[in-house]
Structure formats: structure tokens, C-alpha cells
Automatic annotation (TrEMBL):
Domain of life where this protein originates: Bacteria
InterPro entries (UniProt xref): LipidA_mod_glycosyltrf_83 (IPR050297)
Organism: Paludibaculum fermentans
Membrane-spanning ranges: 71-92, 124-142, 148-173, 185-202, 235-262, 274-292, 298-318, 325-343
GO cellular component, one term: plasma membrane
Membrane-topology annotation of the record: Multi-pass membrane protein
Gene Ontology process terms (BP): lipopolysaccharide biosynthetic process
The protein, known as: Glycosyltransferase RgtA/B/C/D-like domain-containing protein
Source organism phylogeny: Bacteria, Pseudomonadati, Acidobacteriota, Terriglobia, Bryobacterales
Length: 482
């Protein structure tokens, strides 16, 4: 009973957090893709995914899930988050001393980053659960030469869920496998993975070519405009999110070095070959996602690192002396505050997740007429998600490259033009600002601001941007002058 109690208590508490108010945050573009894809028959889902870049396993399983509302799809991710916590204990921590076990499970289960991404309608939590299993079985096979099939199957499940973690495991394990097993056994895993992945291999080759051309996509949301200068921002954003989450008071940033120090201390105590394996996994995973996505989206794609970070921190904290009791207490308090901020939608590091899309859409649905026009910035707002909440009564155009001619055609005849945008215009040649100025040149301009940045964020923005934005979203109304 003493061995079972910790995981039961933690799973119950985690479930309360994961399934509370699943509609808290608005839908965003990636979730909208899931939401629109999963209800299709299985034979239609595959062609949809082949036009996109995702493997099919997550979508197939979610198709069989009986609850296809947005909240229901988020609940499916919550179930996978609970599975991840269970697997972390079953495979890694169950035989640890009680204090270390409690700490590792608690740090993972109540991680604000896991709470944020572990209940989105995406495969992040499923990747995390499968990664916990894959690393365990691959590592056991490397060290004992036993368990080839569990290692191969877990890697294939991961590959059919997402490319990056699956191939990161294969790449990271290659050197330890060669050292412990030799070339023949190592090749056996690689060939087995290749054969098992043949049904999706050609699509992976297409995704790999698109990854190689991803500079244009990942340039969105850049702060520096340089792919090299952006790397410290991506790494810094990822480290902060994975350690203390993305909804926190400014003082919590002081704990990031502490968490990293504890993780380093834990890694020095852990088996060196395993540390090398996990370090290589981290590097390969980061290289895989950093080219494709911008800095706000790094943590979601690397959520599967948190279980191993949690174990390293727990090892670094134990045995708990007076100083480390203080460290554990600070982490506990910060986690509680961050979770509170998450549910109250305060101090988000990426305000886009808490964006008031539903509030803006409600105003537009009530006040905009069929004779009006709604223009939506495509480069620093979630225009597709906003359109999901609009009634469709008023014509709306997302200002993509393809949408700009349509906006120019409709703009002169519109009665009132509504422009939904970010305060900071990152569109090429300031397309969004130019369309807004054209709309308001003969109309009366009124600006409404939404989603204010936290005070400490505004201070930082003022140091690097002129003029610095104070809010994340802006709604400009260009109404007929009277």
C-alpha cells in the first residue's frame, strides 16, 4: 500500500487540474486542424494528413475517442498526460526511495508547462508518454541486450505519433548502442525501425524536405530577424517554459538557474551513459524543432523532455538537507502561483494562448453588419482561429499573401472596416498597417486594446522595441465619419 499511495494521490490531484475547465483557453490554429480532421472517416484522414506533415497514430486514436468536442479532444490529451505520469512511475521511479520518488512524480505531474500543453488538442502529451516508454525500453535493451521487441515497438509507436521524438531516440541511442552492443545489434534496431516505418516513409521524406526549407515558416514571430541571433531566444524561452512554465510572476525567473543547477547535480549522480543518451536526445530534439518552429512553440514540441528533467531535479534535491528543503519549498510555491495564473489567464509568457479571441469575436458578431468588412492580420495573430468564432454574417479576410487582393477589392465599398491585429506589426512591408491606414484614411479611427502584457514584460519590451507594445491584441474600428 505504501508503494501505491504516492502515484494514486498524485494521479488524482493531477486529474483534477487536467480536466477542470477544459474550455478555459480559446482554440488555436493547430488545435483547429485537429478539431476539423478527426471527425472524418479513417480513409479520409490519411489523405488529409498526407497534405499536412503529421503521422497518423494520434489522429486514428482520437477518431475512436467518443468525445469530439474541443473539450473532449483536450480531455483525450489529459488522459495521455495521466498515462505519462503512470509510466514515469512504473518504469523509472517506483523503486526509488520514497522522498525522491515523490519529488520526481510531483515535479512532472504538476509542472505548469505540462498543465499548459498536456491538455491541448494536440499529440504533445501522447508523445511524452511514449517517449518515457521508448527511452526506458531502448536503454534497457542497450544495457542488458534483452528486450529488442519492446524497444522497437515503442520507437515505432513514437515515430507514428511524431517524427522528431522518434528519430531523436534513434539518433541519440546510436552511439551508446554501438558501444554496448556493437554494429550488428545496433543495425538490427535501425533496420527494424525502417521496415516498420515503410508505410509512412515516403511521407516522412516529404516532411524532411519541407523541414529543410522551413526558414520562411519559422521566421514568423522572430524578435531579431536573424536565424542565428534567434537561437538564444529560442533556447531561453524553452528553458524557462520547461522549468517554471509560461504563466508566472517575474520573481519566479530567479528559480530557473536553481532548477538547472539541481538538474546538473542530479545528472552528475546518475549513470553517465544514460546522461549521454539523454543529452544527445535533447540536442537532436532541439535541432529538429528549432528550424521548423518559432520561439513560442519550442516548449510544446519538447514537452517530452520534462519527465527526465523532473527525475534529474529530484535526484539533485535528495537527500534533502535544510538548503534543499528551501529549494523544494520555493519550487512548490512557484508552481502553485503559476497554476493559479494559468487558470486566471494572467502573466502568460506567450499571450497568444490566452488571447481574447472569443471576446473579440463576440463583439464583432454583435456590432459588425453584413455591409462591413473584417480584416485579420495573418502574421502575428491567430486569424484562422478567430474566423472559427465569427458568425460569418460579416465578410472577413485573413491578410495572407493570397488574401490581400481580396481585401483590396472589398475595402472601398465596405461601410465600417474592422481590423484585428497585434500591436506589433511583423507583416512583410507592414501589409497590416498599410491596409489599416487605407481603411481609416476616409473613416473615423477608434482603437481598442486587449490582453495587456505583464508589467515586467512591458519593461523588457521597452528596452528592445520602439515603440513598445503594451497589449497583445488590438481591434481598430474604421467607421464612416459623420
Amino acid at each position: 500500500m505504501k508503494r501505491v499511495l504516492p502515484i494514486v494521490v498524485i494521479l488524482l490531484l493531477q486529474a483534477v487540474l487536467l480536466f477542470a475547465n477544459l474550455d478555459l483557453l480559446p482554440i488555436w490554429t493547430d488545435e483547429l486542424f485537429t478539431f476539423s480532421t478527426v471527425p472524418h472517416p479513417l480513409n479520409e484522414i490519411v489523405p488529409i494528413l498526407q497534405k499536412d506533415i503529421h503521422p497518423p497514430l494520434y489522429y486514428f486514436l482520437l477518431h475512436g475517442w467518443p468525445w469530439h468536442s474541443l473539450a473532449g479532444m483536450r480531455a483525450f490529451s489529459g488522459v495521455w498526460t495521466l498515462i505519462a505520469t503512470f509510466l514515469l512511475d512504473l518504469l523509472w521511479t517506483r523503486r526509488w526511495r520514497p522522498s525522491r520518488r515523490w519529488l520526481a512524480l510531483g515535479i512532472f505531474a504538476f509542472s505548469p508547462c505540462v498543465l499548459l500543453y498536456g491538455r491541448m488538442a494536440r499529440s504533445y502529451s501522447m508523445q511524452t508518454a511514449l517517449m518515457i516508454a521508448a527511452v526506458y525500453f531502448v536503454w534497457r535493451w542497450i544495457r542488458t541486450k534483452d528486450g529488442y521487441w519492446p524497444a522497437l515497438v515503442s520507437v515505432l509507436l513514437l515515430l507514428y505519433t511524431h517524427y522528431v521524438p522518434g528519430f531523436a531516440v534513434l539518433a541519440a541511442c546510436s552511439l551508446p548502442a554501438l558501444a554496448f552492443l556493437g554494429f550488428r545489434r545496433t543495425a538490427l534496431l535501425m533496420v527494424g525501425a525502417l521496415v516498420g516505418y515503410l508505410p509512412w516513409l515516403f511521407k516522412f521524406a516529404d516532411a524532411l524536405s519541407r523541414w529543410g526549407q522551413a526558414a520562411g515558416f519559422s521566421s514568423r514571430y522572430t524578435l531579431t530577424g536573424s536565424s542565428w541571433l534567434e537561437q538564444p531566444i529560442k533556447i531561453g524561452f524553452g528553458v524557462v517554459s520547461l522549468t517554471i512554465g509560461e504563466s508566472f510572476p517575474f520573481v519566479a525567473l530567479l528559480l530557473v538557474p536553481l532548477v538547472l543547477w539541481l538538474a546538473r547535480r542530479g545528472s552528475r549522480i546518475s549513470p553517465k551513459p544514460l546522461v549521454v543518451f539523454l543529452s544527445a536526445l535533447t540536442i537532436v530534439g532541439y535541432l529538429g524543432v528549432s528550424r521548423w518552429v518559432s520561439y513560442p512553440f519550442i516548449p510544446a514540441r519538447l514537452l517530452w523532455l520534462i519527465p527526465f528533467l523532473a527525475m534529474a531535479v529530484a535526484i539533485g534535491l535528495t537527500p534533502i538537507g535544510r538548503v534543499r528543503w528551501w529549494a523544494a519549498a520555493l519550487l512548490l510555491v512557484t508552481t502553485a502561483v503559476s497554476i493559479t495564473f494559468y487558470f486566471t489567464r494572467q502573466n502568460y509568457l506567450n499571450p497568444g494562448y490566452a488571447a481574447p479571441l472569443r471576446e473579440i469575436a463576440e463583439r464583432l458578431n454583435q456590432q459588425a453588419t453584413p455591409a462591413d468588412l473584417i480584416l485579420i492580420d495573418a502574421f502575428n495573430t491567430d486569424g484562422v482561429a478567430l474566423q472559427h468564432y465569427l458568425s460569418g454574417r460579416t465578410p472577413s479576410v485573413v491578410l495572407t499573401h493570397e488574401g490581400q487582393p481580396e481585401a483590396d477589392r472589398l475595402l472601398p465599398a465596405a461601410q465600417t472596416v474592422w481590423v484585428v491585429r497585434n500591436q506589433r506589426d511583423i507583416s512583410p512591408d507592414h501589409v497590416t498597417t498599410n491596409r489599416e491606414n487605407a481603411a481609416c484614411s476616409t473613416r473615423h479611427r477608434e482603437v481598442s486594446l486587449y490582453e495587456p502584457y505583464a508589467e515586467w514584460q512591458q519593461v523588457l519590451l521597452q528596452r528592445f522595441m520602439k515603440p513598445a507594445p503594451t497589449h497583445f491584441y488590438q481591434l481598430t474600428t474604421c467607421a464612416p465619419a459623420h
